Amino acid sequence: MTESPTALLEARGLSKDYGDTRALDSLDLAIAPGEVYCLLGPNGAGKTTTINLFLGFVAPSAGRALVAGLDVSTHDRETKRLLAYIPEQVMLYRNLSGLENLEYFAALGGQGSLGRKRLTEILVEAGLERETVGRRVSAYSKGMRQKVGIAIAIAKEADALLLDEPTSGLDPKASNEFSALVERLRERGVAVLMATHDLFRAKDTGTRVGIMRYGRLVTELSTAEIGHADLERIYLEHMQADTQANGGSP
Amino acid sequence: MIRHIARKEFTDVMRDGRFRWSSILVGALLLVSLAHGWDQTRKARQEHAAAQATAREHWDTQGEKNPHSAAHYGIYAFKPRLALSFVDEGVDPYTGTSVWLEAHRQNDFLLRPAQDATAAQRIGALTAAQVLQHLLPLLIILLTFAAFAGERERGTLRQLLATGVGRRELATGKALGIAGALSLLLAPAALVGAAALVVANPGPAASPLARAAVLAGVYLAYFTAFLALSLAVSAWARSARTALVVLLTVWVVNGLVAPRVAVDLSKRLHPTPSALEFARTVEQEMAASVEGISRPDRDESTRRLLAEYGVESVEDLPINAVGVYLQESEEFGNRIFDRNYGALWDAFERQGVVHETLAVAAPLLAVRTLSMGLAGTDVEQHRHFASAAETYRRDLMRRMNGDMTENSLTGDFTYTVGAEVWEAVPSLQYAAPTLGWVLGNRGLSLAVLGAWLVGAILAAAVRVRRAEVG
Predict the structure, then answer these.
(1) B364, B456, B442, B424: which is closest to B130 by C-alpha?
(2) Using an 8 Å Cβ cutoff, are B469 and B154 in contact?
(3) Do B158 and A80 touch (CB under 8 A)?
(4) Rounded to a whole number, what is the distance in Å from the CA of B269 to chain A's nearest CA?
(5) Between the CA atoms of B175, B178, B184 and B187, what dihedral angle is there, to the nearest 10 degrees?
(6) Short-list B369, B371, B363, B376, CA closest to B349
(7) Is there a contact between B154 and A91 if contact means CB atoms under 8 Å apart?
(8) CA A229 to CA B69: how far, in whole Å?
(9) Cβ contacts of residue A168 below 8 Å, gap of 6+?
(10) A80 and B161 in contact by Cβ < 8 A?
(11) Mean pLDDT per 10-residue section of chain A, whose length is 250 residues
């Protein structure tokens, strides 16, 4: 694990049990500003649990989740002010337009003073076509909703971004646009933690990749030091090793 | 923060076609029921005024006759419709609004619309109070059941809470947004109601505007309790469907089951005789003395008068002994009436206490009691008027028998009087109870409604704080 004294997102021995099941096992992780950390792993590996712990949606069974050095368990409001979150499916209010949705979420995120003009610019920056921002989101595609989700994150001007399978279900063009946006946020110094199944996107977007299995972080790689094929091979090796260790069933 | 949430919730609700149509329907029903109630009250007042004038004219122009005959001729008294009775007609359709005041009898009230109503009329007679007590809570449930459960199901709750907004702020904003949408529905009805109060003769109620203000406060507390309860259930339920089913069950128990149970239980705990049984009992007791209340003995009465005046025969008495005896008979009857009607009214009041107590399980029972009380149409105010009318009747009988006693001699069957005596009888001047009197009687309902309000808000606070993100 890479230690970072300036980590914006940090997990220290972070564990979470659901009954007898250990969903996350002693995770140690540190993500600095301007870093995109991609958590790879199959379903049930603990990726979403990690994000939920950083969001304070569940309490840790052991360890601590820290945002800018503040413990999420004891500084719920303060840490959330520093975070933006984009889920796998950005869900919006169907009776409101994209702009109204952004206006609402931005206001709740402490950016209530942003005018409609600026919010429209943010939506356009996120990739939404200008003529669609006033339409009710009931007519939006998933890709358009994801872009509103990105706009919400941009508008919040958060220091850290939590992404949970954000490109799942997006077409390649939308996925590329999404990656470009994440890259722009990274350049602005935002620390990004992205849970994903997409090896290609992880290599392409991330600065570091962590592979998770059964709640454990089994390896960590720098994307600058490996190619797409290497990442795929390492990932499959870990999956296969775990399958064998578990008697042939993943 | 709360302002933003409330504004978004308001916009969301207003753009929801289901809310638009249901609120138009409920709003229209409320306005129609208010207008109908106001029209009914206006007509009833006109009819009562006309009938009262006619009854008085008949009394004044009944011609020359013996005063006791005039006492038998009698006069009608009409229970005045208070200003707010157009909102809640209460028990008036069942208890009646006019009574014939005559010698020797305490008659039942007449003019009971429920008696003459067809089954269809009974079902169709929707009052503003019924709309407020039944349909508004249903609308609140439909607007609120998904407040948390629906957000959780859709996934928006995660995104909302990730912004850093607190659950309590979210709940408060949602409650205010929904309340804002409901206020658009209620504002026209409130304006119509206020205009009707201002335009209409306020009637003999003390402080009609104060009564209206308290009535508005009662309904506001009721709606707030339902809103908070709906938020609590929505925060607790795993799905919006579960929240809706639970809340509709609450609505059914509150509006349909509890009132029925209250009626049956109160009658079982404090049984009251049927009208026929009651009349028969009074008749039997009037025919024969009961313990502690003896029927006057005419001979004994005469002997006492002879001794009092120091004369030996009734012909020597300076007063009419028959008049004295008639008044003694009247007072005997009064004691029988007091005994029977007192027990009956007390049983009704004890039944009312059962209703008020059961309000701990269904706030509607408290609201209904308070609503009728403030509108002046509950059993207690019916009793208040009935007592005033009975006091007037007794005074009238005393005047008539007194005139006969003082101005004629025993055996003088030709004694008659005319218009000057009839016109000297004052009309019934009824002062309806004050707001303090009403609230004093309804302390239990106020306390239970207050407990519901506080309890629902606390439940919402607790459940919202523990609401799972999903």
Answers:
(1) B364
(2) no
(3) no
(4) 51
(5) -40
(6) B369
(7) yes
(8) 119
(9) A88, A89, A196, A197, A198
(10) yes
(11) 67 93 92 94 90 93 94 92 90 92 92 90 90 92 88 90 85 82 89 90 89 90 84 83 51
Its pTM stands at 0.86
Question: Are the beta carbons of B4 and A107 separated by less than 8 Å?
Answer: yes
HSE of B37, CA atoms in CB hemisphere, 13 A: 32
Q: What's the rounded Cα separation, in Å, for the pair B438 and B345? A: 17
CATH superfamily, region A9-86+158-245: P-loop containing nucleotide triphosphate hydrolases (3.40.50.300)
CB contact under 8 A, A87 and B5: no
pLDDT digits (tens, 9 = 90+) for B321-377: 989 998 999 899 999 999 998 898 899 889 999 999 999 999 999 999 999 999 989
Integer Cα distance of A182 and A179 in angstroms? 5
Report residue B309 CA to chain centroid gap: 51
3-state secondary structure of B428: coil
Tokens 């308001």 identify what position?
Answer: B10
**Residue ranges covered by each domain of chain A:** 9-86+158-245
Query: Are A84 and B159 in contact (CB < 8 Å)?
Result: no
Determine contact: A142 vs chain B, CB below 8 A: no
Q: Is A194 on the interface with B (CB under 8 A)?
A: no
Which one of B159, B167, B168 would you mutate to disrupt binding with A, by most A Cβ within 10 Å of its Cβ?
B159
Contact B1 A87 (CB under 8 A): no
Which of A76, A91, A97 is the best substitution to test chain B (most B C-beta atoms within 10 A)?
A: A91
A-chain CB neighbours of B469 within 8 Å are 52, 57
DSSP states of B169-193: HHHHHHHHHHHHHHHHHHHHHHHHH
* Amino acid sitting at position B2: I
Q: Is A53 on the interface with B (CB under 8 A)?
A: no
Interchain proximity B159–A55, CB inside 8 Å: no
Report the distance separating Cα A181 and Cα B375, nearest Å.
Answer: 65
In the numeric block, the tokens 């409920």 are attached to B26
- Burial label for B198, CB within 10 Å (0-12, 13-18, 19+), is exposed
What residues have CB less than 8 Å from B53, skipping those under 6 apart? none
Query: Nearest chain A Cα to B154, which residue?
Result: A91
**Residues B380/B353, Cβ–Cβ less than 8 Å:** no
Q: Which residues of A touch B181 (CB under 8 A)?
A: none
B321-358 vs B275-287: helix axis angle to the nearest 10?
150
With contacts defined as CB-CB under 8 Å, which chain B residues touch A83? 162, 164
* Angstrom distance (rounded) from CA B168 to CA B179: 16
Q: Which residues of A touch B1 (CB under 8 A)?
A: 107-108
Q: Which residue has the tokens 């005789």?
A: B273
The model's pLDDT over B38-51, given as tens digits with 9 standing for 90+, comes to: 888 888 888 888 88
